[in-house]
Automatic annotation (TrEMBL):
Organism per entry: Candidatus Phaeomarinibacter ectocarpi
Protein family membership: Belongs to the MscS (TC 1.A.23) family.
InterPro entries (alphabetical): LSM_dom_sf (IPR010920), MS_channel_1st (IPR049142), MS_channel_C (IPR049278), MscS-like_channel (IPR052702), MscS_beta-dom_sf (IPR023408), MscS_channel_2nd (IPR006685), MscS_channel_C_sf (IPR011066), MscS_channel_TM-2 (IPR011014)
Lineage: Bacteria, Pseudomonadati, Pseudomonadota, Alphaproteobacteria, Hyphomicrobiales
Keywords: Cell membrane, Membrane, Transmembrane, Transmembrane helix
Name of this chain's protein: Mechanosensitive ion channel MscS
Domain Mechanosensitive ion channel MscS: 268-333
Length: 453
């Protein structure tokens, strides 16, 4: 038998209202006791003044920073960073003024809790902006920003020291060394920061070396690689030493896994050594025009692992350094940048060949990229089935600007000159000689009879 369900019990409205009133009273009492006080009002006023001052200062300095960027060398590191350094003016000035205000309040024995919170937030802001200025890697910036804001939040709520103590408590012992989770995190951050600084400084020095007159591109790249390896080695050693790691234990541990890592990094090490060999023997260097396989272009960069070859159509081939040693490479600008091009031309047997050769020479002499030394030359290279085969030989000293375009320009000029001087280009032709026509006549007669039937 169907029974009507009992309606659910409704909460007591009066009791709920009493709880809400109690919560509001508690919040109001906290606001009256801890927020709406003279010390808090003073700190809020100071922060408002700092905010207005820093905003005005940022707008005031925006113009001079823009002028400094415009005057800087477009290739220099300063030019690439100054346009983003303006974003640091506001947070840095706000942080400095907040520190000064905090120091003054402490001298006056006033409360500084709100100023301390603002300082923590401003430090996080400055660090994130600084990382954004110094690196273009979006992933690194996002990760660093998340970590910095997390640490700032812990510091604001007062949980930073307990959190660090918990990380330090999670530890294990390896020989005479005590390794905690906090030690590992500190090691990763310290070594990572030092490695990043090493790469940044080495890249900066390498860029300056390339702009020094008298330093060849190969020497600049080689010195840059040596500096980078040296800085990275020093950074890792300093980082491990700062953490108090015993190098004896590290040597034993690295020896155990060194063989496995060596097999895994065999190609990487091979490319690194190959790059150093290429720079030492100067067989291939930045700026050379090379041809390897299907790639033809100039070397825009010779890195630790690969060489970047830019083609005329905008493609960029990343060729491992090992391939540049083990494979056949055509270096168009190894000992001499002059490159000879051969342009084949055919004329009919009824044309004036000597006149055609003179016109071909004229077309070469009138092109601005053709060298006068060695001079261009014309040759009659053969008698073909349909044409007299001629050849124009020219020299250019800028193969990176293209060689097909030069040949195309000269062919068009030859076309115009030949038409102006009645030099004919041959057409493919075949002569058919019938030795006996008797069989052909019989065949044609049969065809005609079959059609008439």
């Amino acid at each position: 038998m169907y029974q009507t369900p009992e309606p659910p019990e409704l909460p007591d409205i009066a009791e709920a209202a009493a709880d809400a009133k109690s919560l509001l009273d508690t919040v109001w009492d906290w606001i009256i006791a801890d927020v709406a006080t003279v010390p808090v009002a003073i700190q809020v006023t100071i922060l408002v003044v700092i905010a207005v001052t820093t905003i005005a200062l940022g707008r005031r300095l925006a113009g001079p920073v823009a002028q400094l960027v415009a005057r800087a060398d477009a290739r220099a590191w300063l030019h690439r960073r100054l346009d983003r350094l303006g974003s640091l003016i506001t947070p840095v000035s706000a942080l400095l003024l907040t520190w000064l205000a905090t120091a003054g309040m402490r001298v006056a024995e006033r409360e500084t809790e709100l100023l301390s919170v603002a300082s923590s937030l401003l430090i996080a802001w400055v660090l994130i902006r600084l990382i954004t200025v110094l690196t273009r890697q979006t992933g690194v910036t996002k990760l660093a920003g998340a970590v910095i804001w997390f640490v700032a939040a812990l510091a604001i709520v007062g949980w930073l020291e307990p959190f660090l103590a918990a990380l330090d408590a999670a530890a294990f012992t390896a020989g005479n060394m005590r390794i905690s989770l906090l030690t590992i995190i500190n090691g990763i951050l310290l070594v990572g920061a030092l490695v990043w600084v090493a790469i940044f400084v080495s890249s900066l020095l390498e860029g300056q070396l390339r702009r020094i007159d008298g330093v060849t591109p190969a020497a600049g790249v080689l010195v840059g690689k040596v500096l980078r390896i040296g800085f990275l080695t020093v950074a890792v050693l300093v980082g491990l030493t700062s953490l108090g790691i015993d190098f004896t234990a590290v040597a034993v541990f690295s020896g155990a896994i060194g063989v496995g890592i060596g097999f895994g990094l065999q190609k990487v090490v091979s490319n690194l050594i190959s790059g150093i060999i290429l720079l030492l023997d100067r067989s291939i260097k930045p700026g050379d025009v090379i041809e390897i396989g299907q790639a033809y272009g100039w070397i825009s960069k010779l890195g630790a692992r690969y060489a970047a070859v830019v083609t005329r159509d905008g493609k960029e081939y990343l060729i491992p350094n090992e391939d540049l040693i083990t494979q056949q490479v055509v270096n168009w600008s190894f000992s001499n940048r002059a490159v000879r091009l051969k342009i084949a031309v055919g004329v009919s047997y009824q044309s004036d060949v000597r006149k055609a050769l003179d016109l071909m020479m004229q077309s070469a002499e009138e092109h601005k990229r053709v060298l006068t030394s060695p001079p261009p030359a014309t040759r009659l290279v053969g008698f073909g089935d349909n044409s007299v085969d001629l050849e124009l030989r020219i020299w250019v000293n800028d193969p990176e600007a293209g060689v097909v375009n030069v040949a195309s320009d000269i062919r068009l000029h030859i076309w115009d000159l030949f038409h102006e001087n009645s030099i004919e280009f041959p057409f493919p032709q075949r002569d058919l000689h019938i030795t006996s026509a008797d069989g052909l006549k019989e065949t044609m007669a049969e065809v005609m009879r079959s059609r008439s039937d």
